[in-house]
Design brief:
heterodimer, A: 13 helices, B: 104 residues
């Protein structure tokens, strides 16, 4: 097969990034609805998405902002909600040619998401930063503009529609956690325990006075930590991109 | 609002980037610790589940539309797993539930 030129690699990345861009637009639109409810402006939403590129992480941040919680909580909740990118990034670091410059590594890292990680590692051979840049060139604007658009539309649409759209993000979360729960019993049980524990924590005296973000941090560390102790996972292959999330 | 939204956003952005950039620039080695690998694997499922419930019940301002959206969303996610379909269905269910509640 003939080697592709640099331009062709970049264009291939853009082409493969297009469906991701469309998906991102839809997810970030509903993220924008949630952001609007927390009092975040369209520009702030754009900036948030441009800098974070993470659906769960950003949603967690939105609840933190809505609660006017301490900055430390925003740092911790982002750390927890986005912790899986550590896994993807370590997996990705194995695929760079040793010749790849530090600058390229730092740029490719910028938008490691479930989807963009997925298409990058699906290619044969060493990672080509230009391919990722092509995909980023369409995916990043889709994500950031979608968020701003959701906030703007949230202000324009009638209340009953905005309220209905508010559940879209939870629907997406369900679409991410339920299918793996069907395949993997441990994940299924974890989801059920998490639902129950989260409900109890929102009601129980003492714990319920903690902010939503703090409760999420504590429950995640407790439940995922216990699961990792009781049900450690074997094959590294299963972990690669095994956890899917909007962005 | 005591806190500045831009500071929240910049802090979160810095954390998100550090999580992604440290492994490809500093570690450059796979995580071999089984506990750490397993923990990082389970984290997103737990976090998303914790963030979904019971928050979905209060998302629309009344419990019933949220509860119905949750049930329909879970069933559809179990059957089809299609993300846009599940999200759309949840919205439609919540909308219909609120309309129905107004008529009753």
């Amino acid at each position: 097969m003939k080697e592709m030129t640099k331009g062709q690699v970049f264009l291939k990345g853009m082409k493969d990034g297009m469906p991701i861009c469309l998906g991102y637009f839809a997810v970030s639109f509903s993220l924008g609805i949630a952001a609007r409810n927390a009092g975040i402006t369209a520009f702030q939403g754009f900036l948030m998405s441009f800098l974070n590129n993470a659906s769960a992480g950003e949603y967690a941040l939105i609840t933190t902002i809505a609660a006017d919680a301490p900055y430390l909580e925003a740092v911790l909740i982002t750390l927890v909600a986005n912790a899986r990118y550590l896994l993807m990034s370590t997996a990705l670091s194995q695929r760079f040619s040793p010749k790849t410059k530090m600058g390229h590594r730092m740029l490719v890292a910028y938008d490691i998401t479930d989807e963009l990680f997925g298409i990058a590692v699906a290619r044969e051979g060493d990672l080509e930063p230009l391919y990722s840049y092509g995909a980023f060139a369409v995916a990043i604007p889709g994500w950031a503009v979608g968020t701003a658009f959701g906030i703007i539309m949230g202000n324009l649409l009638p209340g009953i529609l905005v309220r209905a759209l508010s559940v879209a993000l939870y629907g997406m979360f369900l679409a991410i956690i339920i299918p793996p729960a069907k395949k993997d019993k441990v994940v299924g049980v974890l989801v059920a325990i998490s639902f129950a524990a989260s409900y109890v924590a929102s009601r129980a005296p003492g714990i319920s006075s903690l902010s939503e973000g703090t409760r999420t941090i504590l429950l995640t560390i407790l439940i995922a930590g216990a699961a990792a102790l009781l049900f450690p996972r074997n094959t590294p292959e299963e972990d690669k991109g095994g956890s899917a999330d909007g962005a | 609002m005591e806190h500045n939204i831009y500071i929240y956003i910049l802090l979160a952005g810095a954390v998100s980037y550090l999580l992604r950039v440290i492994p490809v620039t500093v570690f450059r080695k796979p995580i071999t610790n089984r506990f750490v690998r397993s923990f990082l694997y389970y984290v997103p499922y737990v976090t998303l589940a914790v963030m979904t419930f019971p928050a979905i019940l209060t998302a629309t301002g009344s419990v019933i539309p949220g509860l119905l959206a949750l049930l329909v969303g879970m069933v559809l996610a179990w059957i089809s797993g299609s993300l846009p379909l599940v999200a759309m269905a949840c919205c439609v269910v919540a909308l219909l539930a609120e309309l129905a509640m107004r008529m009753l």
